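Q: Here's a chain of 546 amino acids. Please give me its 3D structure as tokens.
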Amino acid sequence: MSKKITTIHHPHKIWSMMASNFHLPWLFSILLFSISSASSDSVPDFLQCLSNHSLPSYRISEAIYTPQNSSFSDVLQSYIRNLRFMTSDTPKPLLIVAAMHETHVQATVICAKNHRVEIRIRSSGHDYEGLSYVSSLPFLILDMFNLREISIHVANKTAWVQAGATTGELYYRIAEKSNIHGFPAGVCTTLGAGGHFSGGGYGTMMRKYGLSVDNIVDAQLVDVNGRILDRESMGEDLFWAIRGGGGSSFGVILAWKISLVRVPETVTVFKVARTLEEGATEIVSQWQEVASDLDDDLFIRLSLNAGDKNRGNKSGKTIKASFIALFLGQTDRLLSLMNESFPTLKLQRSDCVEMRWVDSLLFWLNIPNGTPVEVLLDRIPKGKIYLKRKSDYVKKPIPVEGLEGIWRVMMELGEVGMAWNPYGGRMNEIPESATPFPHRAGNIFKIQYSANWVEDGINVTNRYLSLTRELHKAMTPFVSSSPREAFLNYRDIDIGSSTTDGGFAEAAVYGEEYFKDNFERLVRIKTVVDPDNFFVNEQSIPPASN
């Protein structure tokens, strides 16, 4: 990837380079029948269109997989992260275009638009509700996993990252060049840059440096007309929209230019767990009071889970509160800060481990210290699960009696956990309207509700979905309201969805929870750049004309 991204690539200039007698390969003849017979809305020359818009040096036929292809299931399933959407009843795409060149993306957009085939865009498949690879209408998947080049430029503290690159690959490539630079993004290292960044992108350095979108300075996008645009050519409105508003509503993200941030040569991590019997309620109560006001170098996540007491002869349930932290500094300063600001945790020197920033990423994945950092290059998570996620924002501490009520609900439900992630620091300094992501000052922490299971069957799935919704409902008195705010990267179809031709009223239900007052600006931008609503999913931004 070059340091300078081309401003605009017009499709007609690419097409003029092709031979007029470029023949349709035999593969396209087979695909032609499967698409035209699968959807009455598809026109017979759809695949010929793809061929016509493929440069001879980058033939798109080599990037296409259909159900007739022996590799189709492997390609489809490799980037499905939630087994809820890998059942025999899950709708399958008509084909997958695993783009190997930017012209493949352009051709796919142009032909899908011209022939009214719905498109779903997948970077690494971490959409919790499967919206990047499932649709109820005939559709194709535009898979970005082959477009994963990363170019690190330490001298000017920037990098270009293609949409199919994972956060783990990004962290590894940064560490190859520098021990004193990093990037604020998710602790999960198989997240795709295309989707993760465009939804906001948060991680353990957000109190110091903000979100991923707060550190993006340029982008490369294929628009609804098949043009490749950068920040200058797309304009500031569209550049604003794709940094937190969900890129797939506006185009196909090809790459991001990011600003690297400084990290110390040595950081400190710790993980300390306490049960109710060990004073967890008092510690959690103080965590709420101080976590968003601690030194910006310190991020302490609180993980809450119900379980058995398993202590001596005691029986029954308890709550385990785990405090997991990254400190951008060494142990001595960390202990001084903790003793002054968060003494109830009683952090000990023996709890703390010093390491490089890149090694701390393995710590957050529960990978043993000393494991080679090449594990960050693993793109596929080990083991797949069924899962459900939801989110909330908390603006004032929950009183002790409220915490005790939450513990009772969690112990009754038993199999749904929560992660409380502190805000404050840099997050308080950035205005709500700076990016579409509006959850800034006034929030002391964000909640992620989490249910994981491995058992098959719709009854089992419905049970876990119900448990997660029950805990979410029980938290209603303690979280934000009007709207009840939610995080786009924690996609949750429960909060609302819209049909393909749905309009503002349907989308406003989820749009205001994800984006608050920024939703209306997103709609205005969508109306300009994609007035016919080509880029659409069940929680996309609609044009005003809808």
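Q: Can you summarize the key feature?
A: The two ends are 38 Å apart (CA to CA).
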